[in-house]
Amino acid sequence: MSLHVHLVPTLADVAVGATVVVDGAEAHHAVAVRRLAVGERVLLTDGAGRLAEGEVTATGKARLDVEVREVSAVPEPVPHVVVVQALPKGDRGELAVEVLTEIGVARIVPWAAARSVAVWRGERADKSLARWRATAREAAKQSRRAWFPEVSPLASTAEAVRLVAEAPLALVLHEEAAAPLPTDVPDRVVLVVGPEGGLAPEELAAFEEAGARTVRLGSEVLRTSTAGLAAVSALLSRTPRWG
User: Fold this and answer.
1) Of 34, 92, 161, 171, which cross-links 225 as Cys (Cβ 3.0–4.6 Å)?
2) Rounded distance between C-alpha atoms, residue 134 and residue 102, angstroms
3) Pairing state of beta strands 41-45 and 4-7?
4) Cα 108 from Cα 71, distance rounded (Å)
5) Which of 106, 101, 109, 188 is nearest to 144 (CA)?
6) CATH number belonging to domain 80-242
C-alpha cells in the first residue's frame, strides 16, 4: 500500500531520527479526514526534491509529529517541461493543471490568450490562480512527486512570447500545422496550448517569430484541457525519463 504523502515547508537539514512537525491545514486533513493515527507510516516531501519517510508519533487537532526513519533526495527530472496553458472555460482549467501535474511538467503558466473564453481580472484572478495552485499541490501529492510544479501568475502574450524565445525548443500546438512532434527532445521544452477558440493569427505569428515550431498531434482536435497532456506524454516517451 502506498504511503500517504504530506507537504512540509522544508526538509533541509532533516536527518534520520529527527521529528518533523506537520501543522495547519495539511495536518488537519491528515488527522481529521484521513484519520492517520500514531504508529502509521507516512511520506513527507518539501516539493523541492527531498523526501522523508517516517512514523507518526503524535497527533493533534492540527498537528502531526513524524519521526523520520529514512531521508532521500531526488534529482530534478529532465526534460524540464513548461506548459503555457491558455485559460480554459469553467473548471477545465483545474483539469488541465491536474493532468499536467500528474504527467510531470515542471511549470504551468496560465495565459490570457486573445480568444480565451475565461477572463481573470481583479479578485477573480487571485482566486483562480489560488485554485490552480491548490490543484497542482494536491495532484503532486497524489502522484507522489518529489518535485512539485510551479504555477506562475497569469501571463500576457508578450510574456509567453519571451518564454518561447528563451527556450532551446518551443512548440505550439495547432490543428493546421503540418509538422509532427520532434523526436529529439532537449533538457528544456516550452509547449504552448491555445484556447478553445484557437490561436489568433497575430499570436501564432509572434510565437513563430520568437522561434517556436508549430506542430500537430494528429487528425483529431483535442480540447485545450487535454491537448497538453497528450503532447507532453508523446514528448516524454521520446526521452530516457520514460525509457
Assistant:
1) 92
2) 14
3) parallel
4) 28
5) 101
6) 3.40.1280.10
| Of 233, 192, 212, nearest in space to 79 by CA | 233
Backbone angles phi and psi of 71, in degrees to 5:
-125, 140
With cell 500517504, the residue in question is 4
Which pLDDT does position 2 carry in this prediction? 81
Say whether 156 sits in a helix, a strand or coil.
coil
Q: Any idea which residue has 482549467 for its cell?
A: 93
CATH fold group of domain 4-73: Ribosomal Protein L25; Chain P (2.40.240)
Residue-level length of the chain: 243
Q: pTM for the full model?
A: 0.94
- Neighbouring residues of 237: CB distance < 8 A, sequence distance ≥ 6: none
Give the pLDDT confidence of 216-229 residue by residue, as tens digits.
998 888 999 999 99
Report the alpha-carbon distance of residue 175 to residue 192 in Å, rounded: 13
Closest by CA to 93, choosing from 234, 220, 193, is: 193
pLDDT at 21 over 80: yes
Please identify which residue in the block is written with the cell numbers 505550439: 172
| Collapsed DSSP state (helix, strand, coil) of residue 195 | coil
C-alpha cell at 99: 493532468
